[in-house]
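Many introductory courses stop at the sequence. We go one step further.
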Amino acid sequence: MANTGIPILSPLEARVLGVLIEKHLTTPDYYPLTLNALVAGCNQKTNRHPVLNVSEGEVQMALDALKHETLVIESYGASGRVMRYAHNLPKVLGIGQQITALLTALLLRGAQTPGELRTGCDRMYKFADISSVEAFLEEMAGRPAGALVVKLARQPGSREHRWAHLLSGPVDADVETDTSAAHEEGVTTGELAALKSNVAQLRDEVTELRALVERLYQELGVKR
């Protein structure tokens, strides 16, 4: 278990959860989402970091893992024909819309400064000013039930600290730093992106294996 109070999410599980919350807050008329809509949201090229290219099968595996932890709920909606998916994060964590919006922005776009978060959250929740964003971030970092975010070291030349979510476990500060450090070591931006992609792929494969083992336990009637 992560110190957030929920299991550590893989990068794809975090993306799926972030997309569900984003669409719930910004396009409620089209929510809950179908699998096709969710795949499109995960592969969206704007307001996403990193940009992904995942299949329906991969997203379905992530949904199965999230459903197992009650972070996602499925239903047939009003039509009664097409399966749709909804998130359950605020209820599971006991958080309000302000914190939900901040977590969503971090899930979808990675580490950001309070100023970037205020802009990125605008359609989900309108914060009065940057100080308000900072106050909620501090609250999330000092949450008694487990920190949801962590403040990263300020980058050279930057006036603001960046913040990262902890839903995928402890943050590797080296990975979250600016790519300028990688250039100093002779690593190109493309190579760094490839390394990150490989890590994400490995994590997703572990998630798939975990779901497969869980299904085998259920089919064999073996208690864990």
